[in-house]
Design brief:
The structure holds two protein chains of two kinds. Chain A is of the alpha+beta class. Chain A contains 13 helices and twelve strands. The relative contact order of chain A is 0.05. The radius of gyration of chain B is 14 Å and the shape is globular. Classes of the chains: A alpha+beta, B alpha/beta. The interface of A and B includes residues 204, 223 and 378 of A.
Chain lengths: ~425, ~140
């Protein structure tokens, strides 16, 4: 295209030169033959020079074309919304990301007011921002609320730069618009999490300090109640004090549990391998296992998925393995088998011991609070109750099978995908 | 011979709780307000049961536990604390060294104090070297 145009121009020049020559043929006749030779040489050199210049011009023109295409590509296809605005903030040009951001087509936007996309409560902020950039010619930055074509609001960061014209005047601005709604949300979340974490740490500190005086209150109230006749009207009041103190203790305990993890709600759950937890528990009990000459075997099926668990899961396994150790204390065969296996969308954990077993009549009660078959001084009767409530909170189940004289198996089934059961 | 019990806790209210709980019983109760004083008392008297706080100024509970263990390895020691998470690692390494102790979560009420005292005095052998117990594994009432 460019080549064609320059060729046509050369032809025109040629024609005009020939006309001049035809009008005055004397020009050639009056020149001496030696001079003609010299002129021809000069002309040849000129021609070559001109051809070279021509070539150079063509190259530069192509380069310019390329640069322009590149610029258009960069502008149009940039991931950031670009708006070129005139001094009245009318949209002169907008790139694809810009039109996408506003949910409108490019040709509908060009020629319209940019302020139509600024939320009413941010109009002033935009006005000051834009005026400042036009006045000072310094790159400006501001955050404000904008509206999409359908009226949906979003938070935007605007970075505006002047586009100086040849005469040095500033009549246009190029404004980059970045949707920062998500960034804003994350920032707010982070601030909230930090606040909660600080509150949690403080609450834990307070809670810890409260437990000592509460132990005093509990015991002092009990002491007074014990030294009061049941017929005394103060007796039930003292009972109430005791009861309410225990309630306070429960609240304080839940605060310490909550804040210990330093995280919120669901985040207490972590995706972890049960094999790791079992290892930790076995390590914790290693002394006893060795001392009692117990053969503890672990069978972790390959490819068992990780599950969402809370740190309390360690307590469950600790309870089950401690129970197993207690059960085999008097047995001849001292074996404990811990198995972990993936089953569809569940993971199954079983703890089997070769202990004395549980009589069928007691089997239904093992998870009941304060039920224990252990001799006095062993066990609280709360271990399995606590374990079951922990498993429940994980959305899983725990069951028990036992044959007297053969052994007992506790089976836990945990869902792989669900985080914190019904949460 | 009556059972001798030592309570080591820097909080007066805790020591007093133990005193009230065991008042009028045959148990001989001694209290100490620091790890150092507790060790001193343990040197003078052979106790049958020790309740030990973790967070104390001076020698903390775990350091006190080690000292007590060096002296005597048959006394059941109940770590009585509101919050043992801060000491988890130290407790774990103590357990790894085969130091035997029990963990008891505060608040501990009178019934628990008495039942532990009773069980220890009635079945002292059961508590010898039985290893680590975790989380309020206190003996319950008969």
């Amino acid at each position: 295209m460019a080549k064609e145009r320059s060729g046509k121009r050369a032809n025109d020049l040629r024609k005009r030169a020939e006309i001049i020559l035809a009008e005055d043929p004397q020009i050639i006749r009056t020149i001496a033959p030696a001079d003609i030779q010299k002129i021809i040489h000069e002309l040849n050199v000129h021609q070559i020079e001109l051809e070279m210049q021509n070539e150079e011009l063509r190259r530069v023109q192509l380069e310019l074309q390329e640069a322009r295409d590149k610029y258009l590509n960069l502008y149009d296809l940039a991931p950031t919304g670009y708006f070129t605005l005139d001094h009245n903030s009318l949209i002169v040009d907008v790139n694809l990301a810009g039109s996408e951001l506003l949910g409108s087509e490019k040709h509908r936007l060009i020629g319209t007011q940019f302020t139509a996309s600024i939320s009413p409560d941010s109009q002033d902020a935009f006005y000051f921002h834009y005026r400042e950039v036009l006045k000072t010619g310094i790159k400006g930055n501001c955050e404000l609320k904008m509206l999409k074509a359908d009226g949906t609001p979003f938070h935007a960061q605007l970075i505006s730069m002047d586009v100086p014209e040849k005469d040095g005047n500033i009549n246009q601005c190029r404004t980059a618009v970045i949707d920062i709604t998500e960034r804003r949300r994350m920032q707010a979340q982070l601030i909230q999490a930090e606040k909660m974490s600080a509150v949690g740490t403080m609450a834990a500190g307070i809670a810890h300090e409260l437990l000592n005086p509460m132990m005093g209150m509990l015991n002092f109230a009990q002491y007074c109640r014990e030294h009061t006749a049941e017929s005394d009207p103060r007796y039930p009041v003292l009972q109430d004090i005791e009861h309410e103190t225990r309630r306070c203790v429960d609240i304080v305990r839940s605060v310490t549990t909550f804040s210990h993890t330093g995280k919120l709600g669901e985040e207490e759950y972590q995706r972890e391998s049960l094999a790791t937890i079992i290892d930790q528990v076995v390590r914790l009990l290693s002394y006893r296992i060795k001392n009692q000459h117990v053969s503890l075997t672990q069978h972790i099926a390959e490819g068992t998925p990780e599950v969402w668990i809370e740190t309390s899961m360690q307590e469950v396994l600790l309870n089950l393995i401690t129970n197993a150790l207690d059960a085999i204390e008097e047995s001849e065969r001292k074996e404990i088998r811990v198995e972990v296996q993936g089953e569809d969308r569940f993971v199954r954990v079983t703890v089997t011991d070769s202990g004395c077993g549980i009589p069928p009549k007691n089997l239904g009660q093992v998870f009941d609070p304060f039920f224990t078959t252990k001799p006095v001084g062993r066990g609280t009767g709360l271990g399995l109750t606590t374990s079951r409530s922990i498993i429940d909170s994980h959305g899983g189940s725990i069951t028990c099978e036992s044959k007297p004289g053969v052994g007992t198996t506790f089976k836990i089934v945990l869902p792989v995908e669900i985080k914190g059961g019904a949460k | 011979m009556s059972t001798k019990i030592l309570v080591i806790d820097d909080e007066k209210v805790i020591r007093k709780s133990f005193i009230l709980a065991l008042e009028g019983t045959d148990y001989q109760l001694e209290t100490a307000e620091s790890g150092e004083k507790g060790i001193e008392k343990a040197r003078e008297t052979k106790f049958d049961l020790i309740f030990l706080d973790l967070r104390m100024p001076g020698l903390d509970g775990v350091e006190t536990l080690r000292e007590l263990w060096k002296m005597e390895q048959t006394v059941p020691i109940y770590i009585t604390t509101a919050f043992y998470d801060d000491f988890r690692e130290q407790l774990q390494s103590a357990a790894d060294e085969a130091i035997s102790f029990y963990l008891l979560k505060k608040p501990v009420d009178m019934d628990e104090i008495r039942s532990i005292a009773r069980v220890v005095s009635e079945h002292p052998k059961r508590f010898r070297n039985s290893g680590l117990r975790v989380k309020s594994l206190f003996p319950e009432s008969v």
